[in-house]
Amino acid sequence: MEDRGESFVAVRRISHSLERGNACHSTSAEVVAGSAAWLGRGLSCVCAQRRESDDRPSFDLTLAQEECLQRLQNRIDIAYDSSIAEHRDALRALWSAAFPEDELCGLISEQWKEMGWQGKDPSTDFRGGGFISLENLLFFARNFPKSFQDLLQKREGDRSAWEYPFAVAGVNITFMLIQMLDLEAVKPRAIVGATFLKFLAENESAFDLLYCITFKLMDQQWLSMRASYMDFNTVMKATRRQLERELLIEDIIRLEELPSYGLLSR
């Protein structure tokens, strides 16, 4: 994700001291604003480099795979647009899933920083991942609520004093998966992308499910590496390598058979 010269939010160890009843006018002492230079060094997407020319061979697809890929590409092409009611409703739904007991004061609010957005308007963070990155987060919250809350609240493991911002990390994961699977190409040019399309042809929600697996795997890598905020790119690279290995395991026909799927809990 590109450095746009904006501020970011680094989330320290999760604090439960915020008085939610006055959340519209409060910010947690555990939220620290900083320079955008940190975002470029610590939380930029590790897979954003594009090549001017790419001579990698492409893989032939079945008609079903082509159709599934086209539908997924259509989703990827949709930018978040706050003027669209569906997009606004999805953002409100994400808040309700994340903090069901807390009323959201508005789509532009300091409250969003508690989820790990860079500022009070999360729509600015969707530029790197598009509307699909919001859909991914919402799918995660609805289908694996326990794992979603565990990551949001940083409940598991010996956490770093400086943690990765949950929501911004989620947008990075969406972007990383799109690049890793080569989903913007007419045909996949890497075997991992061609393999994924087999899963997609069997399950239209395969990308969303893989997102959930990847987010949980990333957090496991974070803990095992005893990482801190500035190690985020290193953790993402390790996560990508592990995910590629798992996707290429022979005889796996469903994403639910991936070893890292077992990390998820509902």
Automatic annotation (TrEMBL):
Pfam family, one: ELMO_CED12
PROSITE patterns: ELMO
Stretches assigned to the ELMO domain: 86-247
Cited InterPro entries: ELMO_dom (IPR006816), ELMO_domain-containing (IPR050868)
Protein name per its UniProtKB record: ELMO domain-containing protein
Source organism of this protein record: Rubroshorea leprosula
